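Summary of Year 1 activities. Much of the first year was spent building the evaluation harness for sequence design. The harness presents a backbone, in tokenized form, and records the residue chosen at every position. We chose the following record to illustrate the format because it has been used consistently in internal testing since the harness was completed.
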């Protein structure tokens, strides 16, 4: 992580291993004619592991399941809903050094699955064991202790905007990194599947690797129910239940600021992507509005995935300041305020996340900053963050006219 860049924070590596269902794993046929394929991926000393498929197709009626070695985490069924034209697919990462992939094809299913493995994702930081109340002994949260879960009281009137924010897992060659972004609407109000983020999240990602870019929706925990356990409800907010595993894999790069340089960006650092596959209505996607008038905002929020963690919310109550950051007048600078729950900031992995004004419209995307849960030198809860301006993104960067 660059110290002042809330960036595409590397938390894993791709371990390439070319294999498929005919030469890897084992097939079993049950008495009713159901065929089952199982394959285990093991990566020593990994905190968690995921599977990469560069050829993926499931016939309708079949299903795939994933579980870790001690079966404390299970995911599925993964169905033909995940099929796509580019035939790329990536699972969520699962706690531990090993995962097992189990494909089940009932006897009456027509067609054959394509299960071509490209390899495994080996994650070495910024992951935690998915449990109802994760604690430090079981892996804990990857984000700092000051961060405020989005379903705490601070997010009460921001549930629509919350549903538009996504966690992005970005594959770039051998590297796996994390960023944030938000669905945004167009001037045609057509809800085309645009995601706005930051260019420095993916400055060199190839089109081939864009097919592996994973958008994770609704990655949050619901608010705890009111109870009489003596613990204030705000201390338990966002700790109930399990976080979601709703993903879309594959992105098309539409536009960016083209302002990446060896010394950092020299513009407003934006990236516009399109989610390649249809987003199901069950994800409740919200296409956020935005304001490109270059008008300061007296207060507002930031919603993001710090260190790739479940969704968090931060609040500013002092006006955003227009600053020279990369280029004259290219960024808004904000300082976060303490709230009733805590003093939310941002972290690596928050990059590309939206800054909202008091009218709930996006006015910027996170480029860099010095805010942190822990005071250390120029970093700390009251230190500033810098957001590339919506008013600067399209017309003022070194990018091409289209």
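For this record, the design step produced the sequence shown next.
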């Amino acid at each position: 992580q660059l110290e002042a860049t809330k960036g595409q924070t590397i938390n894993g590596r791709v371990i390439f291993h070319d294999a498929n269902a005919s030469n890897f794993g084992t097939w079993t046929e049950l008495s009713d004619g159901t065929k089952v394929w199982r394959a285990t991926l093991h990566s020593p000393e990994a905190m968690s592991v995921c599977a990469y498929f560069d050829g993926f197709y499931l016939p309708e009626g079949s299903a795939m399941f994933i579980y870790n070695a001690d079966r404390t985490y299970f995911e599925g069924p993964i169905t033909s809903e995940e099929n796509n034209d580019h035939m790329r697919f990536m699972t969520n990462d699962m706690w531990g050094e090993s995962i097992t992939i189990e494909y089940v094809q009932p006897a009456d299913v027509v067609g054959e699955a394509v299960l071509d493995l490209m390899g495994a994702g080996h994650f070495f930081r910024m992951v935690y064991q998915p449990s109802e109340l994760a604690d430090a002994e079981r892996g804990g949260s990857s984000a700092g202790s000051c961060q405020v879960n989005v379903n705490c009281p601070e997010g009460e009137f921001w549930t629509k905007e919350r549903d538009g924010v996504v966690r992005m897992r970005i594959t770039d060659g051998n590297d796996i990194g994390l960023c944030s972004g938000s669905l945004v609407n167009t001037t045609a109000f057509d809800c085309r599947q645009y995601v706005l983020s930051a260019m420095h999240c993916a400055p060199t990602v190839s089109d081939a690797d864009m097919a592996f870019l994973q958008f994770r929706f609704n990655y949050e925990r619901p608010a705890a129910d009111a109870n009489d356990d003596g613990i204030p409800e705000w201390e338990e907010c966002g700790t109930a239940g399990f976080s979601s595993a709703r993903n879309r894999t594959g992105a098309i790069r539409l536009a960016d600021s083209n302002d990446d340089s060896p010394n950092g960006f020299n513009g407003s650092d934006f990236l516009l992507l399109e989610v390649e596959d249809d987003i199901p209505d069950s994800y409740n996607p919200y296409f956020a509005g935005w304001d490109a008038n270059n008008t300061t905002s007296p207060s507002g929020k930031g919603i993001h995935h710090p260190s790739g963690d479940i969704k968090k919310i931060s609040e500013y109550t002092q006006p955003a300041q227009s600053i020279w950051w990369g280029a004259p007048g290219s960024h808004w600078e904000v300082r976060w305020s303490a709230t009733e729950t805590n003093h939310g900031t941002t972290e690596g992995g928050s990059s590309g996340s939206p800054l909202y004004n008091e009218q709930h419209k996006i006015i910027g995307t996170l480029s860099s900053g010095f805010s942190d849960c822990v005071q250390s030198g120029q970093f700390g809860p009251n230190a500033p963050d810098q957001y590339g301006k919506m008013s600067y993104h399209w017309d003022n960067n070194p990018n091409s006219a289209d």
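The first strand starts at residue 9 and ends at 20. Quantitative recovery figures across the full test set are reported in Table 2.
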